[in-house]
């Protein structure tokens, strides 16, 4: 199962076509699942506000319960679940991997916002305080952000799923420093005892994603799906 999520900024994740996801279903015999979690806009502003600032943990809880539902209803097992999200969705997948590593076999955090105490200091990060809060200006928001910040909550003495942290060296929306710091923390704290790989993929001469040449899109998709397939035991079928 490939479980995709976003959960932020009142953005609704609606049905859409993706050739790479067709490849996942057709050639890896995979299931693709998209839960509509709090923080998004699928059910109006109240739904959005139930997943921001001091309530941001609700977003991660919803995503983890979606994984549990897929397990409890017989679609899959924890070692066969890969989670994937980008930008705010990268925060989602990294936070969930920190909080419930036993639920997943693989996690891909793409161009994620991963240092929740300092995100507002870089590029256009201050604009995201509307959803995340500000650790410098509000004590309650600092405490809430500290609890969920992926960079500050990497755990030792647990087994993480296979992790792929992707970024680009010219990302001027979410600075690649987020991915660099989180990968370093993973490899330093969890890496020595972890049985599965904890890796970063850094695209060069590219940004946050919009406008990326087709050749780079294909290369990235091939790398990510190969990583996911390898680590959840999915085999290619013609």
Describe this structure in words.
It contains eight helices and six strands. The chain is α/β, with parallel strands linked by helices. The chain has a six-stranded parallel β-sheet, sandwiched between helices. β1, α1 and β2 form a beta-alpha-beta unit. The longest helix has 19 residues.
Low-confidence stretches: none
The SS-based structural class is alpha/beta
| Alpha plus pi helix count | 8
The first-to-last residue Cα distance is 19 Å
Strand order of the largest sheet: 2-1-3-4-5-6
Estimate the helix proportion, in percent: 25-40%
Please state the CA-atom Rg, rounded to the nearest Å: 17 Å
Major sheet attributes: 6 strands, parallel
Shape: globular
**Count of strand segments:** 6
- Overall pLDDT level: 96
* SSE succession: EHEHHEHEHHEHEH
| Content of β-strand | 5-15%
Element layout with pairings:
Elements: E1 2-4, H1 19-27, E2 32-33, H2 45-49, H3 57-72, E3 82-86, H4 88-99, E4 106-110, H5 129-132, H6 139-148, E5 162-168, H7 177-190, E6 198-203, H8 214-232
For this entry, give a set of tags.
single chain; 238 residues; alpha/beta; 8 helices
What's the quick description here?
With 238 residues, this protein is α/β, with parallel strands linked by helices.
